[in-house]
Amino acid sequence: MSVHEECGVFGVISDKPFDAAGMCCRGLYALQHRGQESCGIVVNDDGLFVSRKGLGLVSEVFAPDVLSSFPPGTMAAAHTRYGTTGSSSLANCQPIEVNHLKGRMAVAHNGNLSNAAELRSALELNGAIFHTSSDTETIAYIVTRERLGAPSIEEALSRAMDTLEGAYSLVLMSPQKLICARDPLGFRPLCFGRTEGGVYAVASESCALKAVGAEFIRDVEPGEILVFGRDGVVSRREHCGKAPKKLCVFEYIYFARPDSVIDGRSVHAARLEAGRILARAYPASADLVIGVPDSGLDAALGYSRESGIPYGIGLIKNKYVGRTFIAPEGRSDMVSIKLSAVEEAVKGRSIVLIDDSVVRGTTGGRIVSLLRQAGAKEIHMRVSAPPFLFPCYYGTDVDSDADLIARRHTPDEIARMMGADSLAFLPVESLCALSASRDCCSACFDGRYPLKVPADTRKNRFEQKLSERDK
Amino acid sequence: MSVHEECGVFGVISDKPFDAAGMCCRGLYALQHRGQESCGIVVNDDGLFVSRKGLGLVSEVFAPDVLSSFPPGTMAAAHTRYGTTGSSSLANCQPIEVNHLKGRMAVAHNGNLSNAAELRSALELNGAIFHTSSDTETIAYIVTRERLGAPSIEEALSRAMDTLEGAYSLVLMSPQKLICARDPLGFRPLCFGRTEGGVYAVASESCALKAVGAEFIRDVEPGEILVFGRDGVVSRREHCGKAPKKLCVFEYIYFARPDSVIDGRSVHAARLEAGRILARAYPASADLVIGVPDSGLDAALGYSRESGIPYGIGLIKNKYVGRTFIAPEGRSDMVSIKLSAVEEAVKGRSIVLIDDSVVRGTTGGRIVSLLRQAGAKEIHMRVSAPPFLFPCYYGTDVDSDADLIARRHTPDEIARMMGADSLAFLPVESLCALSASRDCCSACFDGRYPLKVPADTRKNRFEQKLSERDK
Amino acid sequence: MSVHEECGVFGVISDKPFDAAGMCCRGLYALQHRGQESCGIVVNDDGLFVSRKGLGLVSEVFAPDVLSSFPPGTMAAAHTRYGTTGSSSLANCQPIEVNHLKGRMAVAHNGNLSNAAELRSALELNGAIFHTSSDTETIAYIVTRERLGAPSIEEALSRAMDTLEGAYSLVLMSPQKLICARDPLGFRPLCFGRTEGGVYAVASESCALKAVGAEFIRDVEPGEILVFGRDGVVSRREHCGKAPKKLCVFEYIYFARPDSVIDGRSVHAARLEAGRILARAYPASADLVIGVPDSGLDAALGYSRESGIPYGIGLIKNKYVGRTFIAPEGRSDMVSIKLSAVEEAVKGRSIVLIDDSVVRGTTGGRIVSLLRQAGAKEIHMRVSAPPFLFPCYYGTDVDSDADLIARRHTPDEIARMMGADSLAFLPVESLCALSASRDCCSACFDGRYPLKVPADTRKNRFEQKLSERDK
Amino acid sequence: MSVHEECGVFGVISDKPFDAAGMCCRGLYALQHRGQESCGIVVNDDGLFVSRKGLGLVSEVFAPDVLSSFPPGTMAAAHTRYGTTGSSSLANCQPIEVNHLKGRMAVAHNGNLSNAAELRSALELNGAIFHTSSDTETIAYIVTRERLGAPSIEEALSRAMDTLEGAYSLVLMSPQKLICARDPLGFRPLCFGRTEGGVYAVASESCALKAVGAEFIRDVEPGEILVFGRDGVVSRREHCGKAPKKLCVFEYIYFARPDSVIDGRSVHAARLEAGRILARAYPASADLVIGVPDSGLDAALGYSRESGIPYGIGLIKNKYVGRTFIAPEGRSDMVSIKLSAVEEAVKGRSIVLIDDSVVRGTTGGRIVSLLRQAGAKEIHMRVSAPPFLFPCYYGTDVDSDADLIARRHTPDEIARMMGADSLAFLPVESLCALSASRDCCSACFDGRYPLKVPADTRKNRFEQKLSERDK
């Protein structure tokens, strides 16, 4: 599907030098699903920052010789990013590093500011220059400006948070400290843990803590700032509790890895539950339930368990298809390269097919067609998310040009267009059941935005404006 | 696991020029699981051979600019290879291309000759020089020598087959013909199909036919030679029916893709059946059946269905871990990077864990340990293959230095070593149930070799001998 | 030798779109001798900036596929840079691009600010963040801040020049204009010309104008700002004539290409003259005059012509030795790989050997030794520059750790240490004869600095300070 | 110019392991001018061959990490090659390595067999297969076939030499021996030397011996086989003295480096002499003599000395222009990118311009034009070689499609076409003066072939025939 979030963040700190880059690399491997465009690691070697960033997967950017070129360090910050292609975006690789009066700072960021345009204009009016078009640089600027009058970097960050609006889970590194923070509504996940060897690790998802051998301690709370430094771990909570928690529900449905636990709720369990809800709300008479791999499998299992219809393996995903694969002319279907049907499983059978979302409907239509060719008798599509109807301003990127099929067609119409025998979406009113707190942001489905909606919300708003000026 | 086969072959031919390289590339994507070390495509552009080969995955070797540098052609041969690492093995990339009296020839090969050493010695005594250490060059030599006295390349191949012993599925390309052949015992799979546009495609597995939009026609029969050329498709059957079919049973258990159908038997169905057999032979009292992804999932589903124990998703595989990942010092466990347990699913539960094989036992031990850390109460391991006890001379590569645990320990001992509560292997006498013909090669499990066992069977036998001579 | 300047700048503009990137590429080829670490081109495609930058030679960074990925544009700015190694310096590639209130700006810079530290501190106190450690970002900042109150970018640049001290030859590009400027003392060269097709080109040296088919119009004057835009070429001279011209004399001796003409003086002629001066001041009784290729050849010819001693070809330079060549252990002599003596020419002869500088004396010693091994009878070394005695703050980089041999030894001692029969330097009082205006900066030889000497002059002054703060 | 020879060979051997790859790399750097398409090194590590080969310059193929991946060895063979472009030619990289009955063999070859087509046909009739289109593989085959009946590899080589006709300077490496040989007419150079540390080195040119610190011992004689092994150095002379020495005169004029000495004659001295001959035969009234860098400089100096006209530096070569540079559309002149005139030197002057050859006349015409633009009053071109009139079958590659201007035009006509005031070639009857022995091959100038002319002499003769057969 074509919905993307931008980024995973990671950080580690110990009281003595260790292979911080290697640990970050393992953490990034576990967060790779959150972004595949570029990645970066900045190691803090006694105040000296050593960084390597690049376009590509963790395995491509951090080849063994690159990884071994890092010195040991007492801490490190790391990032993996989703974004548009093109070498020009090299400048947008994170963590970004900036030099300022009080020293160097590295910033890794997951999320989107909803008041980015206003903040940026104000900074520019005050003489700021920007090297990138990302919100991360805006955050770095504001922290730096506050730093001029603040006694510490964490105090500067706290003051900056008075100004920042929207979604942000941050890892900041200064010469002496590692700091992480989560926006007051907690749109994006962030948690931390500790290894037996005494290394603290901060990560977007708990699966990355496990990957580095760290035991999960707890989620960073919405609004909380955690400072890891000489004095151990200090929690600052002045931004906590001022707003209801609004974790993005799409983390459970699509973004996060099923083995992660976010804000007290297992992603696997949330997806099983979505399947169960669908089975109750939209039962089907069928021989087999199959999921679209990988993110539809858990919900398929939930549907199967609730309905009693046997679970099957009916679609195989080719894990070797590179990001650069170009479909042959006249056949735009990546789908037939990436997925194939198991004829033996589906032939002559009525199928319940679980997918995690429907955006334009083209991918779903091709999957239905693959199953028909393999002999499926009936196909009842069940979608483990409600239909996308509203834009997201907090870091979820539904292609702006996307022809959102659900805005113009009923489920029955969509089923016909796809060639499915029936189609149903997860009821929007049941979304609260997916999170532990029964409270989350589902604005993209119901339009109930927890914050003021920005005036100009185009993804490339900064880039576009730039060429219009100074002509 | 550490068992590998060497290679997938692919070929296409039409009566007019088309994007033969692009179609081969899609075919190779579908065969990538059969070998990830190197790959190659040779396009026949009106008698001129244009080739690109390289170390790496299809997505790495055939980047868009490389793929677009091929001319259109009326046919092409392609190969994906498993092998040892190191740039020196560039010479071993296939298809190999040779020039001889009657023109150029490209050869792609899957399998291993059991009389390779004798054949090679005889050729060398007659003045042959070898550029590689692969059996493929030996095959090319013998075909070429026969070609001197034969009226056609297919006749030369047929005569060569009198001499060749062992496993081989071949795709040969001459300036005017595409030819494929399968050894008389049919150790390795080979099939062909046709697209709506009239392109014939030959492939190691049927999943690659689907990937290029070709409809499966049938398997190439053991001993059969198929000649695709000006006169359409001609089948030569002089080597057919002289020996019982002996398809490698490990194709069903591990090598092939579940959506492939080989010699009339769906791989998915064979694996389901292996799970069912295990459930009947070695029942367990448990709450959940989980498979080790990806190749253990189908058998896990079979075990679940037969036993009635619910199927679960308990292990997540990280598909982004590169082949070059190097585990940090002191922690050789790729396992914890590649796999993680879904705590929510396994915590407090008794688990039946299905894996496809046990070689040295270390991987299995680590998976058991992951599940224990995630809170699994009991772990009953069931292996969907019998224990490896004998070397394979037909293309399956169990590391020669492998410490085959089953040769020295009973299942109970292995269970204890791994930390599992019980462990059982697929009964060797039930193997016949996996294939459609109820006849297959299972020599690595039972030592019943269908052909004479070679004297020197070391993998690097040619390379080692070379440095001992002419001193 | 180990003396380096940092950078060559280039820019082009026309009133209609053209292959601006291709023309920049040819210009950079001609300026490659001024810097080989990295290079970059930014094309202005109707206000949209498209840039490609990278570490390496122009031929490496601008491979045909990269070059052809640029769109046509009406203008472009380009840069080639000398600098330290390491991928981390990717951030320092120029032209740098910044976004600000009034639009985007690209800046390419050759030189060094002598008040960079003060300027940077002041900016940081005002909330600025820096992404790089280069003076170019400081210049961009100051121009941007002035831009807030200035009616045009050229006015902002002019106001910025009130603040900037030191050496700078600049090419600036805004969405609508190409602007170039030279510092009021004119330390670094800068000139412009025009092609028959109406494209204006700006370049560090006139050889780059020739390379793109542009006819030299004139040098940019010290202090002059030239604005190329809709209104043609506008010269602003408010900073002109306030200080004596102080072109770096080392441009004539070493940096510039012999076919360039700088401030009215041919570099070739200046070097011939240096050779003639040496011949008059330090005659030698010898059979042959040879130069160390490439930069010693012109002076050798001058010495030969003045003295009447025949000119010879006695040393061959290997042009294929890559920058990454690593000398074998225990033999640090790049010299014997890069240079070799023509035994036929030097055997049994007394030689006058002309080199362009002596820094540590090791290279010279090895060349003397090469010639001795080839049979030279006597070697009289003549250096076409005075001895380095003082640090340069205007862009010439004598390694800070360099063991400047001339500070501790007399020419006779140096001759003995190198194994030469005699050695003499260009008299410092004759330097004025090399330039047309008889006035130039020769501070590195005589300590007469035309501007206030900065307090902290370490090359890495910013990087070092950064890790000391905020601990 | 567009005349090329194919290849430089190099080899080293010691009685104990050393950094053989590093020494080869330095040797190849010194031979890089003989071929820039590809290069390779094969190290003999106690009978095990470790090789690295690739397309590109030595500095590109043997990056530090590649070079350091070689083990130490007691010997190594190396090669640098000129050839056509395209990744498909990777197979043609040398040294080629073949495996045969008596062990492994590496072969590096410089030259061209004039009976290659006959030899290849005969081998193919006997069942040989060829992987490449190069003569080197033919040589390897014939040596291998002889090896079957010969007591040693050197005896096999000697017997093979009864069959081989044409030009070949060879380095062969077996598990135990390094062998070099030169064809009986000695078309291509070959020499050997010894380092202080006891390493023997064999090289195409003496400049490569110097580069590795080896003292030149002597040229390998025409027809001589030298065997370096356990018994020291053994010379076999059974093919010596049967024919007059026929060194290719173009080695002196163009191919070899001026600091090399070939068959007793310094290349520098030969070129000086060519200049002197031109000065006597074709005097000119001029102010300055300039050479086209780099290979015209020595002859220019000779002309200057003989005529008394001052030597000047009038053309500068840009050493940074990569091989992949693509001239902008509509301007095919690489010349203006690679060369530039020194206006100061040539303006208003009458010039004698020395180039080493004229093939199609286009390059010369552009150089004349560059000088005119720079203000040269008169240009008298003198070419330090006779006109090319006949094809070479011994390894010199004048482009087969070359429009050899001298075959259709008189020198006066060529001068007019180029825009020169006069033009003269080196008299063909004075060629003998260039070599020490006064005897050399000058067939490309005078058509006097020392061996039978082959029937089919097309460069791609093998490749073309291949696609015609087996249709």
How does the helix and strand content of chain A classify structurally? Answer: alpha+beta
**Number of helix segments of chain A?**
17
Give the proportion of residues in helices of chain A. 25-40%
- Cα separation of the termini of chain A: 40 Å
**Uncertain residue ranges of chain A:** 84-88, 327-332, 458-471
Oligomer: homotetramer
| General shape of chain A | globular
Count of DSSP E strands of chain A? 23
Strand order of the largest sheet of chain A: 4-3-5-2-11-10-12
User: How much of the polypeptide of chain A forms β-strand, as a percent range?
Assistant: 25-35%
Cα Rg of chain A:
23 Å
Give the overall average pLDDT of chain A: 89
Please explain how this structure is put together.
- By secondary structure, the first copy, chain A, is α+β, with helices and mostly antiparallel strands.
- In chain A, about 30% of the residues lie in helices and about 25% in strands.
- Residues about 85-90, about 325-330 and about 460-470 of chain A have low confidence and may be disordered.
Task: Provide a brief overview of the structure.
By secondary structure, the first copy, chain A, is an alpha+beta fold.
Topology diagram in text:
The structure is a homotetramer of 471-residue chains.
Chain A: E1 3-5, E2 8-18, H1 20-31, E3 38-45, E4 48-55, H2 58-61, H3 64-67, E5 73-81, E6 96-100, E7 103-110, H4 116-125, H5 135-149, H6 153-161, E8 169-173, E9 178-182, E10 191-195, E11 200-203, H7 206-211, E12 214-219, E13 225-229, E14 232-236, H8 250-255, E15 261-262, E16 265-266, H9 267-281, E17 288-291, H10 297-307, E18 315-317, H11 335-338, E19 339-341, H12 343-346, E20 350-355, H13 362-373, E21 378-383, E22 396-398, H14 405-408, H15 411-418, E23 422-425, H16 443-446, H17 461-466
Parallel strand pairs in A: 17-20, 20-21, 21-23
Antiparallel strand pairs in A: 1-22, 2-5, 2-11, 3-4, 3-5, 6-7, 7-8, 8-9, 9-13, 10-11, 10-12, 13-14, 15-16, 18-19
Helix pairs in contact in A: 4-5, 5-6, 9-10
